[in-house]
Design brief:
Radius of gyration: 26 Å
Structural class: alpha+beta
Number of helices: 10
Distance between the termini: 35 Å
Helix content: 40-55%
Strand order of the largest sheet: 2-6-7-1-5-4-3
Strand content: 15-25%
Number of strands: 14
Mean pLDDT: 89
Length: 398
């Protein structure tokens, strides 16, 4: 499997200038290729092939006075910019034809020098290397100091140099590595994600929601106010913009670090992990949007998924329409309604449930049933005639 290892870079002023030139050249090649294909489509001409496009916007463009400066950067950087454009087009085509599942993908858009994120990619053909002294040697840029937090397990196949909105530089190495199985354990856990508590597990553990954005709102608001008061295109506005971007980066970094630690602990302690397949994009359009985005559920679930694959743990998502909160984990009775204000409830069978713990118990039970069913065991009753009063279920039953 492929993993990314990110490290902080500290380029010198001259190297920052060389990186800015590389960012600009890659952006120009991307935009020229996009414009060429858009013009061909408007004129009713056939789709320009990848090879023909590379010849037009790179090879032939370097021979013209307007694009002669493209030769000042590594050719691999320019080729990878076109590769990103081609990938964006094919993702769009697959989304239109239905080959790509999930949300619809928009066609490629032009890149801007004002984008918060600028990036270039070097492959093995570029002959990047790790220079003596722990520096990263990039062609036509030089040896850039790297803050190594850990060793690379194998030789990287590519490296992407990224500049974020806070003017920080990072090197993202792609590493091909095998799985690292952890010692097997009998524990299995179901996780119910929420807002009052970030996660509630089937063994009764409740993880408080750190609310990184809410805690930093005052500092972020002050930074944004200072930015809005600065004159446009002034040096002071640039300083205020960097200050605001740094404040937002701290929030994102803290949330990511916390999610990494929690997901690693859960994967290490459990052989199987089950979560609900939440519609985060839909919840992000409700009155709880800020709290939903602050929680970072999608990021956390993605970490659980790839870490489970790497450490040979079982991971599964339960259908989002499964009534985990309404279902009694003791007798199987489904309550008619369960407003969010109800945090505990009593089933007609006499069982008293904590809403979140009961949901987590139902999630792990449903995950076990689906897992056994996938392995061939018969875990569900056979088909039976539907009752006259209960011929189906509503999608909103959860």
């Amino acid at each position: 499997m492929q993993l990314r290892y990110n490290f902080r870079l500290y380029p010198t002023p001259g190297q920052r200038h060389a990186l800015a030139r590389a960012f600009g050249c890659a952006r120009v090649v991307f935009n020229d290729g996009l414009r060429a294909r858009q013009d061909a489509r408007e004129q009713g001409m056939p789709y320009i092939s990848d090879g023909e496009l590379s010849k037009r916007v790179i090879t032939q463009a370097k021979k013209t006075p307007d694009r002669a400066w493209l030769g000042e950067v590594s050719a691999v950087v320019l080729q990878q910019a076109l590769a990103d454009l081609n990938k964006a087009y094919w993702n769009f085509f697959d989304s239109v034809t239905g080959k790509r599942k999930g949300p619809k993908i928009a066609p490629p858009r032009f890149r801007s020098r004002k984008d918060n994120r600028q990036a270039i990619r070097f492959t093995k053909n570029a002959r990047f290397s790790l220079a003596p002294g722990g520096k990263l040697r990039l062609p036509k840029i030089g040896d850039i100091p790297v803050r190594w937090s850990r060793d690379l397990p194998t030789e990287p196949s590519s490296v992407t140099v990224v500049k974020d909105a806070a003017d920080r530089y990072f090197a993202s190495f792609v590493i091909e590595t095998g799985k690292a199985p952890l010692p097997e354990t009998a524990a299995e856990v179901g996780i119910d994600l929420g807002l009052s508590h970030f996660a509630v597990t089937s063994d009764g553990r409740k993880v408080d929601n750190p609310r990184f954005l809410r805690r930093a709102e005052r500092r972020l608001r002050k930074a944004q106010q200072e930015l809005s008061r600065k004159e446009k295109s002034s040096a002071n506005r640039q300083k205020a913009r960097a200050k605001a971007a740094t404040a937002h980066a701290r929030v994102a970094d803290a949330r990511r670090d916390w999610a990494h630690k929690l997901s690693t602990q859960i994967i290490r302690d459990n052989q199987a992990v089950y979560v609900e397949n939440l519609a985060v994009s839909g919840l992000g359009r409700t009155r709880l949007a800020k709290s939903v985005h602050d929680a970072g559920w999608s990021q956390f679930v993605a970490m659980l998924e790839y870490k489970a694959a790497r450490y040979c743990r079982h991971f599964a998502k339960i259908d989002r329409w499964f009534p985990s909160s309404k279902l009694c984990s003791g007798c199987g009775t489904v309550a008619e309604s369960m407003p969010l204000a109800i945090r505990s409830w009593t089933c007609p069978c006499g069982a008293v449930h904590d809403r979140d713990i009961n949901a987590a118990i139902n999630i792990v039970a449903a995950g076990r049933a689906d897992r056994l069913n996938a392995c061939g065991a018969r875990v569900r009753p056979g088909p039976a005639p539907a009752q006259r009063e209960e011929a189906g279920s509503f999608r909103g039953a959860a």
